[in-house]
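User: Run a structure prediction on this.
Assistant: Running it now.
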Amino acid sequence: MVDSNKIKGRIVELGLNQSDVARYLGLATTTTCQKINNVRSMKVEEAAKMATLLKIPDEDFSTYFFK
């Protein structure tokens, strides 16, 4: 389960939106929103790619993606 609030906050901090994240991941915006909101599960590969986009340091990865 991802920490939706932390991820959404980081997206805003970087001046991005969920459509930007979806485009980067190669997913539909709806699918990405569902994954961020824990409606659908997120693959580890997707989380890693999102962490790269959101510039989340490795040591903080688990606080965002393993709530």
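Residues 4-13 form the longest helix (10 residues).
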